[in-house]
Amino acid sequence: AQKVTQAQTEISVVEKEDVTLDCVYETRDTTYYLFWYKQPPSGELVFLIRRNSFDEQNEISGRYSWNFQKSTSSFNFTITASQVVDSAVYFCALSGYAGGTSYGKLTFGQGTILTVHP
Amino acid sequence: NAGVMQNPRHLVRRRGQEARLRCSPMKGHSHVYWYRQLPEEGLKFMVYLQKENIIDESGMPKERFSAEFPKEGPSILRIQQVVRGDSAAYFCASSELYQETQYFGPGTRLLVL
């Protein structure tokens, strides 16, 4: 069975602080994908990043960066110089091979509520 | 390129009524997924469909819930005889063939009175 754990339920920071959201996963699949999604107060789910299990390179996109470490089964997300608009719920998710032509369902963590104060 | 469309955005039903939730995937996407977000349970997978086929329904409740993705038209998630516990946000996602990234719609908020 697959499992995703986001141990931080809520994080509160002041604008311009850096913040790291933790994600630890469990899977028996040798090939799998990891994702981060953002859910702002408006409620939609916004895709941020996808990583496959064979690519452990860290990635940076603007103020966002991701650290994938297979040895510790972690896929952490850092926001540098946080802004009020970063306030949202952030979900880490995992998909494994479901047969056929796709990887099927996503298993989500419980989410981390990030509040950035001005 | 329009994103994933879901309608209605909000739906109110009385206990015992039927709820029909619609999802139009992104253009060119042939895979559709439904998820439910309950306040205390987070986002949970319900069903994965391709055109005219149910690929994985391991997350669907055994009774009252059904889903389809016909050859023409949107995917439908149908809940019969709704109960208060069905109140939740229902999200649809879609992906391309051979692509693993799922793009989500804005969700349908179902409230059962």
Structure description:
The complex is a heterodimer of chains A (118) and B (113). Chain A has 118 residues and is mostly beta strands. Chain A has no helices and twelve strands. In chain A, a hairpin with a 4-residue loop joins strand 8 and strand 9. Helix content of chain B is 0%, strand content 51%. In chain B, the strands form two sheets. In chain B, strands 2, 4, 5, 6, 9, 10 and 11 form a seven-stranded mixed β-sheet that branches. Chain B has a four-stranded antiparallel β-sheet with strand order 1-3-8-7, with no helix packed on it. The mean pLDDT of chain B is 94. Classes of the chains: A mainly beta (118), B mainly beta (113). At the A-B interface, strand 5, strand 6, strand 10 and strand 11 of A face strand 4, strand 5, strand 9 and strand 10 of B.
**What is the CA-atom radius of gyration of chain B, in angstroms?**
13 Å
Global shape of chain B: globular
Number of helical segments of chain B? 0
Strand content of chain A: over 45%
Q: What average pLDDT do the residues of chain A reach?
A: 92
Give me the secondary-structure category of chain B: mainly beta
Poorly predicted residue ranges of chain A: none
Structural class by sheet pairing and helices of chain A = mainly beta
Helix-residue proportion of chain B: under 10%
Q: Whole-number average pLDDT of chain B? A: 94
Task: State the end-to-end CA separation of chain B.
Answer: 37 Å
Tally of strands of chain A: 12
User: Sheet with the most strands of chain B?
Assistant: 7 strands, mixed
Shape of chain A: globular
Can you lay out the helices and strands and say which pair or pack?
The complex is a heterodimer of chains A (118) and B (113).
Chain A: E1 3-5, E2 10-14, E3 19-21, E4 24-26, E5 32-39, E6 46-52, E7 59-61, E8 64-69, E9 74-79, E10 88-96, E11 106-108, E12 112-117
Parallel strand pairs in A: 2-12
Antiparallel strand pairs in A: 1-4, 3-9, 5-6, 5-10, 7-8, 8-9, 10-11, 10-12
Chain B: E1 5-7, E2 10-13, E3 19-24, E4 31-38, E5 42-50, E6 53-56, E7 65-68, E8 75-79, E9 88-95, E10 103-104, E11 108-112
Parallel strand pairs in B: 2-11
Antiparallel strand pairs in B: 1-3, 3-8, 4-5, 4-9, 5-6, 7-8, 9-10, 9-11
